[in-house]
Amino acid sequence: MSSNPGTAPPSATPPPLDGASAPTRTRPEHGATTGAPLDDPVAQIAARHAASHPRPPRHRLLALLGPAFVAAVAYVDPGNVAANITAGARYGYLLVWVLVAANAMAVLIQYQSAKLGIVTGRSLPQVLGERLGRPARLAYWAQAELVAAATDLAEVIGGAIALNLLLGLPLLTGGLIVGVASMALLALQERRSQRTFEGVVVTLLIVVTIGFLGGLVVAPPDWGGTLAGLVPRLEGTGSLLVAASMLGATVMPHAIYLHSSLVRDHNHELSAAGEASQAVGATSTSGAPQEHPGPGKTVYAACTAPTATTGPGSTSRLLHATRVDVVWALIVAGAVNIALLLLAASALAGARGTDTIEGAHAAITASLGPAVGTVFAIGLLASGLASTSVGAYAGSEIMAGLLHTRVPLLLRRGVTLVPALVIIAVGAEPTWALVLSQVVLSFGIPLAVVPLMRLTGSARVMGQWRDSAPLRWSARAAAALIVALNLALVSLTLSGQA
């Protein structure tokens, strides 16, 4: 029987041609790199090659990595730079243990956010939007949007300061440039693909890492002092306040909201690409022509990623890949933060003015030379660009999940840029604005962490993938500590003691 071109489902085994037996391989495990349309002979040859050369397991794992590195940008935003440098300049290696502990807590919470997205196929805002009544849903959305706006404020200002340090541009001009550049980054996600956006953000994260670690080459730390700093201890109320600010600012609410969305979109995109790969494989093995996808549309052959709906085995693979993704991403982010503290401890001990980004840059330039100062400013700029783009993405997901309305990402970016530019235009002191934004973020942390704990610990929501008892209790202890320290930080800040 002859086949009916273009009507067979992509996953079906194509019928034999001219009485030949059906082929045994019908689905390629990885695709052609040409991105050619289905009727292109080159694409058909590539698909046949893919079918006979399955993608090694390590490549399938790599295809699932990426979302955690995007979320990790929140951990190296401009708001963390001054805090870590201040800690090193004032207290040397004393508070290294705080960053190590904070990073371990972040691994737990970010993994739970990603796990929720994998198992349920929905983001944290989506799940909450389905469970809350209309008044509670609107109130929750309002506070989440306020948190997103505060995040954006710190990151736009940080990028503007970096352009001022590098090029001498006024802060308002720098803020506009950062806003336009972030819109260009978001356009990649909206008009190209999730993987393209992830690739650009990870590249910026690499620049941040080089920029903030570069100073250690010139001023290596005292490794004996670093090891001693792993022992938990404090020296007076001043070090307690700094430790509270470092630990309390570690878990960012918008990163919690966003991570569940990132893994959902990432896996759906790979799954859709896998279906296209199956379609190419079916065409190439049967020899029957299929309908061209249409003008301007190209079907690419790519690896087929499992989704949470394809069975327990697929979910297990996704969760394994997510654990790898989260651990490595936060190792990078933690290394950057620890490097900033070590740099300050080794080169800026006793330096004044390091509680502002401008002061930290001036101290680094004076102590280590203009080249290191320039590399630091470039890292700061990359941090601002990446983190403000990720923050805008998070705000879009918050609105879509809680209001069931999706505003075009670029339009939203333009609207949310206005408050940050207004605050810069009225001449607000940048460091004061950064402090204010951190206080607002502190109010939002328990409203993100506590619902996440309840959801991932619920058998009704997660089924067999509910958090184990050790994970539940560890995450609860971490969340309680973070919330308590954030409340203390807010109280001290509002009372003028911070």
From TrEMBL:
InterPro entries from the UniProt entry: NRAMP_fam
Protein species of origin: Actinomyces lilanjuaniae
Main location: membrane
PANTHER family: NATURAL RESISTANCE-ASSOCIATED MACROPHAGE PROTEIN 2, SOLUTE CARRIER PROTEIN FAMILY 11 MEMBER
Region of interest: Disordered: 1-38, 274-297
Domain of life: Bacteria
Protein's recorded name: Divalent metal cation transporter
NCBIfam families: nramp, Nramp_1
